[in-house]
Structure formats: structure tokens, C-alpha cells
Design a protein that fits this description.
The chain folds into 2 domains: 139 residues, Aspartate Aminotransferase, domain 1; 253 residues, Type I PLP-dependent aspartate aminotransferase-like (Major domain) (Aspartate Aminotransferase, domain 2), CATH 3.40.640.10. The protein is an alpha/beta fold. Bound molecules: pyridoxal-5'-phosphate.
């Protein structure tokens, strides 16, 4: 199916107001998503929050079907969480760790994930080991196999890092984890909604993602996938009445269901908005939207590479819609601010978000233009022109003698 870009942009009011290349931060929602959220909030205000929820129960439950449809999972393998980090932490702290267990991970982990690996190290006495990548960011799978021992309990992998354009070979890693019967957690925060993600093909046991980025849903939502077969090996870090049944002063029962990761209280307005965003994408087909993201990001990289003084800092054999670059003589945050003044949204990826990778590459910060399918070649041309102007301005300032 070919995408009707004009229609997609007409569905997205924000495209009329800004040039938005901060989709890896938070993308622009479609109007239907905003409408359903505001309508539902109005109903809560006029009918009562609990009463509306009971009436909308069936529609709310469509969330699980749409999320499952997108990643090829069953409805009862999906739980609603607050964001990708929340989902990852819920999984991490539900694994029965023993001192000496090993968590194997990658060089490109996001800060919120790695911090919690360190917390597990501190609290449970586990070891955190990093599988190296080559100088172009490609993970060394043969090293991963060499590092496997009976002590390895979890392999935790970032599918698409925040700061480098890379796509990790999630399926190849899945083959290794299955061969050695090791739990596999995929941080799919930047991948679900951007590239096709199929949990059966990848063979991960856990996946966590967020609503506001490539899925174009509202902020403050996410979901996790947990493979049914691994549920009985987990103990949630905290309990909630969704799945824990309080029997008496000393006892409770716990359901063995993915809902152990959900909380009873949540924003149903946002759940409905998130569902709309998911069904919009499912109807377009992520294979189609991914083709366009690839086309546009390849175009942006090639245009940036034509300009002297600009270095595209992306790595990896397979690249995604996140395009990172540095401009000689211009700090990445200054560049982002200068572009913002001109109605162009980008972001800066700074060292703290991915310390191991940034240190390895000797980077303090890079500018990040993250492309979505609703962006256009014209918008890219404007961005490249502005970046070139900012670079020229910085150079001329340097040449002016004091
Ligand atoms: C690769 C990656 N993982 C995890 C996260 C955390 O996502 P959230 O802010 O939804 O918790 C981010 C956020 O930017 C990310 O880029």
C-alpha cells in the first residue's frame, strides 16, 4: 500500500505548525487521538470517572488487541505501564536474581536501563557484563556466545538506541538466547512503531515500549509484552489489587498473568488515545511506514554528508530513522536551540543518556533529527539549508578577529 502523505499530514494538525524532527523524543499525534482523549475527559467530568469506565470497558480492552496485533503477541501477553523505563524496571525487578548471576547487555543501553542494572548489582550482588561492538557499532555476536555461562540469567538489549541510528540484530540475538535458554529483554522504546517488530520472530521473552515516540500516542503511557511461558518464573516487585487478592491479615493469592505488571489506577483517557494511535498505525501497516522512514532518513543523511563541516555520527550496518550529526564549531544544544527559533524541532543526545557508547566514540553530544513517515523531503531540504547557514555563521564568527 502506498501512503497518502497529504492525507496523513492533514490528519496531524501539528504538521501545519512546526517542522518536527523530534519523533524519537515525542512525535505529533493524529487529531483522532487528541479528540478521543478530550471527549473521554469531558465524560469523566460530567458522568463520573468510575461510571464512564464501566460503560467503556469493551472499547478500553481493544487496547490489548491493537498492541498485540502490532507486535504479533496475544492480548493476554500485554500489560499497560507508564512508560518504557517503567516496563523495563518491572521486568528487571521481578526476576529471581541470586548473587553471582550475570546480566549480559550491550554498549548502547539507555541511562534509565543501565542505572537499574547497576542497582541490581548493588542490591542483589549480580554481575553486569557488556558484550562489545566493533568500531562501527555492530555487536559482536560471536563474543556474546563466548560470554555465555550457566550464570547468565538475562540478556538485555536495546533494539534502537537513542543516539546513533543503529538497529541491533534482535532476531540473531534471539537465536542465541533461545539456544542457551536465557531470558531475553528487548528495550523496544524506539523501535515499536518505527520498524516492524515481531516478538515471535525475535523470540524475546519481554519487550517494553512507550506511547509518545514512534507510536504517536499520548505521553505517560507504555506497554510491555511478557511471553506467557515465562510468567511463572517471575515475582513482581510490588503488588496491586489487579492480580493480588487479599485474603486475610496474613495471606493473599496472586494470579499468574501479565497483569501482575499493571496497576489498577490509570488514565483511561490516555489508554483510549493510545489505542487510537495503535489502530491508526496498524491500518497503515508498519511495513509501509517503515519504508518511508528509511527513504527519508537515507535522504537526510546523504544531504548532510554533502556539507563540509558536518559529520553524520550514525553507526551500524542497519540504520533507522534516527539521524545524528555534529556541526564543527557548534555545540549540539546550541544548534537545536537555533533551529527551534526557526520552527524546526530537533533534539540533542547528550552523553548522560548513553554513557558507555558516547564515551567509546568520544562524544559529549550530538544533534538528533528523528524522522517519521509524516515528514517530507521539503522539510528535510529546509532543515539542511538552515544547518548549513548556522554552520556558515559559526565559521564567520570564528574568523572575525577580536
Ligand atoms: C532507547 C531508549 N530506551 C528507553 C527509553 C526510556 O523511555 P521512557 O522515557 O518512555 O521511559 C528511551 C527514551 O528516550 C530510549 O531512547
Amino acid at each position: 500500500m502506498s501512503l497518502n502523505i497529504e492525507q496523513l499530514r492533514a490528519d496531524t494538525p501539528g504538521t501545519q505548525a512546526v517542522i518536527h524532527f523530534n519523533n524519537a523524543g515525542c512525535s505529533l499525534p493524529v487529531k483522532e487521538t487528541i479528540d478521543i482523549i478530550t471527549e473521554y475527559l469531558q465524560l469523566e467530568a460530567t458522568l463520573g470517572g468510575y461510571e464512564v469506565k464501566n460503560k467503556y470497558e469493551n472499547i478500553i480492552n481493544e487496547f490489548y488487541t491493537e498492541a498485540g496485533r502490532l507486535i504479533n503477541a496475544a492480548d493476554d501477553e500485554i500489560a499497560i505501564v507508564s512508560n518504557a523505563s517503567d516496563g523495563i524496571n518491572k521486568v528487571l525487578f521481578s526476576i529471581p536474581w541470586e548473587a553471582g548471576d550475570v546480566l549480559l547487555t550491550t554498549e548502547v543501553e539507555y541511562g534509565n536501563c543501565y542505572l537499574n542494572y547497576l542497582k541490581l548489582k548493588e542490591e542483589k550482588g549480580i554481575e553486569v557484563k557488556i558484550v562489545p561492538s566493533d568500531d562501527d557499532g555492530n555487536i559482536l555476536l560471536e563474543k556474546m556466545e563466548e560470554m555465555i555461562s550457566p550464570k547468565v540469567k538475562l540478556i538485555a538489549v536495546t533494539h534502537i538506541p537513542t543516539n546513533s541510528g543503529l538497529i541491533m540484530p534482535a532476531e540473531e540475538i534471539g537465536k542465541i538466547t533461545k539456544k542457551h535458554n536465557i531470558l531475553y529483554l528487548l528495550d523496544a522504546c524506539q523501535s515499536v512503531g518505527q520498524i516492524p517488530v515481531d516478538v515471535e520472530k525475535i523470540q524475546c521473552d519481554f519487550l517494553s515500549t512507550t506511547s509518545r515516540k514512534y507510536l504517536r500516542g499520548p505521553r505517560g503511557m507504555g506497554f510491555i509484552y511478557v511471553r506467557k511461558e515465562v510468567l511463572k518464573r517471575l515475582t513482581p516487585a510490588t503488588l496491586d489489587m489487579v492480580t493480588a487478592h487479599w485474603k486475610d491479615a496474613d495471606n493473599y493469592d496472586l494470579d499468574c498473568s501479565v497483569k501482575i505488571f499493571e496497576q489498577w489506577e490509570k488514565s483511561y483517557a490516555l489508554v483510549l488515545g493510545f489505542t487510537k494511535a495503535l489502530s491508526y498505525l496498524n491500518n497503515l501497516g508498519v511495513e509501509n511506514t517503515w519504508k518511508r522512514i528509511q527513504h527519508l532518513s537515507t535522504y537526510l543523511r546523504s544531504e548532510l554528508e554533502k556539507i563540509g563541516g558536518i559529520e553524520v555520527t550514525d553507526v551500524g550496518k542497519k540504520k533507522c530513522g534516527i539521524v545524528t550529526f555534529s556541526v564543527a564549531g557548534v555545540d549540539s544544544e546550541e544548534l537545536v536551540n537555533a533551529l527551534l527559533q526557526q520552527g524546526i524541532n530537533l533534539s540533542a543526545s547528550l552523553r548522560f543518556s548513553s554513557v558507555i557508547d558516547m564515551d567509546k566514540r568520544g562524544l559529549e553530544g550530538v544533534a538528533r533529527a528523528s524522522i517519521h513517515y509524516y515528514n517530507t523531503e521539503d522539510e528535510i531540504d529546509i532543515l539542511v539549508e538552515k544547518v548549513e547557514q548556522i554552520f556558515a555563521y559559526a565559521m564567520s564568527k570564528k574568523e572575525i578577529p577580536n
